[in-house]
Amino acid sequence: MPHTITLAAGWIQTGTGIGTDLKGLIFDVAIPVLCGMFVLVVGWKTKAPGPTIMAVIFAAIVWGLSANMAALKNKTNEDIVQYQSGPNAARSDQ
């Protein structure tokens, strides 16, 4: 009687764990550090307040959006569900 054994189950679980850890590392550490480095480099290279202020604003937008990915995902899902179940769902756009 043959037995079925999934040999890759441990590797799949390990890969999932590494992916989750890597995602957390990117969003919690790498993006904030890179945003800070971006502001410092722009400020050091230009030595002008205008471009440095714009770099701070741009870095804040990038950091803020990356920190709120879950909220953006939920909002997108709500929009898709609302569009699909709306009053004109049966009507085609063509």
Structure summarized in a few sentences:
By secondary structure, the protein is an all-alpha fold. It has three helices and no strands. Helices cover 78% and strands 0% of the residues.
Key terms:
single chain, 3 helices, flat, 94 residues
Describe this structure in words.
With 94 residues, this protein is mostly helical. It has 3 helices and no strands. It has helices at residues 9-46, 49-67, 69-84. Helix 1 (9-46) packs antiparallel against helix 2 (49-67). It is flat and about 75 Å long.
C-alpha-based Rg, rounded? 22 Å
Q: Biggest sheet, open or closed, and with what strands and sense? A: none
As a percent range, the share of strand residues is under 5%
Structural class: mainly alpha
In N-to-C order, the SSE pattern is HHH
Helix content: over 70%
Task: Summarize the SSE layout with pairings.
Blueprint: H1 9-46, H2 49-67, H3 69-84
Helix pairs in contact: 1-2
